[in-house]
Specification:
The chain is mostly beta strands. The protein has one domain. The chain is built from two helices and 15 strands. It has a 15-stranded antiparallel β-sheet that branches. The longest helix is centred in the middle third of the chain and has 13 residues. It holds the Pfam family EipB_like. InterPro entries: EipB-like. This is Cell envelope integrity EipB family protein.
């Protein structure tokens, strides 16, 4: 699965946006089963997501992401899935390095590692795992933090719709997702100043409700139309932090509630 705005996450060039600077932070979310349809075969689900974001527009951005879920199926079986990713985006999205591992019941079932570089006509991906391979993706394809910044820029301008192709090294590292992002109206954080809950650092900030739909351009349904692989909804705060998460896989949803939030030092990087 793509890590979206978290893997970083989760457009334009990596740099500070007008009025916005991405805040280095570590956010922990408790994940629970939401809406459920009978054909999903799922009886229960719980998990935890950890998103650790560091760096700045001068030095580039690093993401460490982990998403552990335990599924129970309707036949009584259970499975623990552990997705671990690390990535680094250079300033101005000159390159993107990534490593992703997926474990099922503590057994490694998938590993992807590689680097994507921006060039004049296209972005070139060099994969090391699962096999050595080179491929080209479009010059307009965005890396995860690029995409996050583009959403913030669009939101700040009052633009409510954004379409972009995204590359985050997901799955075997050969897939580019087409995405559509719907951005709601700006609102103020409901967190009260002086509160002591996990979302206390978000008091006084504005946010936008955002829904990003991820499409596999190579897949179509029986009618010949594309349907989302999944949709990610969240509150995107002006400093790049996400809250009120919801992953929609069609026949079931997963909801995420912030359990902890730690802000890191922004580092010395002039606004630009």
């Amino acid at each position: 699965m793509s890590t979206g705005p978290w893997g970083g996450a989760q457009a334009a060039s990596v740099g500070a946006t007008a009025g916005h600077r991405l805040v280095p932070h570590r956010a922990v979310y408790d994940m629970q089963l939401g809406e459920l349809e009978e054909q999903s075969g799922i009886a229960g689900l719980n998990g935890r997501m950890v998103y650790d974001f560091t760096g700045n527009a001068c030095e580039g951005y690093s993401v460490n992401f982990r998403f552990v879920t335990q599924f129970q199926d309707t036949s009584g079986g259970s499975q623990i899935t552990d997705l671990q990713t690390t990535s680094f985006e250079e300033p101005r999205a000159e390159s993107y390095q990534f490593l992703s591992k997926t474990f099922v019941d503590q057994k490694l079932v998938e590993e992807t590692r590689g680097t994507a570089h921006a060039a004049a006509g296209a972005k070139t991906v060099k994969l090391k795992e699962p096999s050595e391979k080179s491929l080209k993706i479009g010059r307009e394809v965005l890396f995860p933090t690029e995409h996050l910044i583009a959403i913030l820029e669009s939101a700040d301008k009052g633009v409510h719709f954004l379409a972009a192709d995204i590359y985050d090294g997901a799955e075997t590292g050969e897939k580019v997702y087409a995405t559509t992002t719907v951005i709601g109206d700006r609102a103020m954080s409901p967190v009260k100043p002086g509160s002591d809950g996990p979302e206390a650092p978000l008091a006084g900030l504005s946010y936008w409700p955002v829904t990003v739909a991820y499409f596999d351009p190579t897949a179509e349904d029986a009618s010949g139309e594309q349907v989302p692989v999944y949709q990610l909804s969240f509150w995107l705060y002006e400093n790049g932090i996400s809250g009120q998460l919801k992953l929609d896989y069609g026949d079931f949803t997963i909801k995420g509630k912030m359990a902890a939030l730690e802000l890191y030092d922004r580092g010395d990087c002039p606004q630009r």
